[in-house]
Amino acid sequence: MAQSVRTFSRAHPSADASYASVLDRLEGTITQMEELAKSQEGGFATKHSSAVRRQDLRRQMRKGLLRHVATAAEDAGTEVPGIAERFPLPHTSATNTAFRAAASKLLEEGRAHQEVLVQHGLSADLLNQLEGAIKEFDASLQETDDGKQSHVVARAEMKTLSDEISRLVGILDGFNRYRFHREPELIVAWESAKHVVSGPQVKSGSATPAGPVQAGLEPAA
To answer: What is the arithmetic mean of pLDDT over 161-183?
Structure first.
């Protein structure tokens, strides 16, 4: 709707300085809205990519690094009774928090019993690799949080800008109704410009949905 109003206003300029000022504000608000839309889209993309990477890390850690530590501990149980019970693998359905805690516990226990575990098949560098994988897992969690925050902030700011657009279109509406009052065809064109809606249209005879079609972008009165 805002873009349609901008297009109409550019096609039918006014020499009135106040009109030009309001149109400048509208164009600036549209630019801000477009930038926020990109930021919101980036937040979604970050959330998705970090979630995919985290799931892959979980599979790799559980089937590789963590399982190797656990199997070495199981073999070490022939020498150190009860040691295997100190290395339980996280459940496949564990939450990210629970999975991260279990992985950290295995790393801690692995460091504490590294000498005996190495004697029973643990790769000397595996614990360092596990530590690196946990840090990468943490980074993916942070990326998800950042993506969510970016989306939430952008949404709130877009609502504020949406309200600003509605106010500005209302001001332009007053201008245009006055300057086009003897040109009914331009009044019709203006009405069309500021009543643009997106999404499914209500068929003739259907009940009109309550409230504006686009929240914050309802036509000016």
So the answer is: 91
- Find all residues with CB under 8 Å of 192, minimum gap 6, and list them: none
The boundaries of the domain holding residue 147 are 2-10+17-194
Domain assignment of residue 181, yes or no: yes
Q: Which region holds residue 205: left if phi is over 0, alpha if psi is between -120 and 50, else beta?
A: left
Domain assignment present for 204: no
Round to whole Å and give the CA distance between 181 and 179. 6
27-73 pLDDT, tens digit per residue, is: 999 998 888 887 777 777 777 788 888 889 999 899 899 999 999 99
How many residues are listed for the chain in this entry?
221
Structurally, how many domains does the chain consist of?
1
In a domain, 188, yes or no: yes
Phi, psi angles (nearest 5°) of residue 65:
-60, -55
Whole-structure pTM value: 0.55
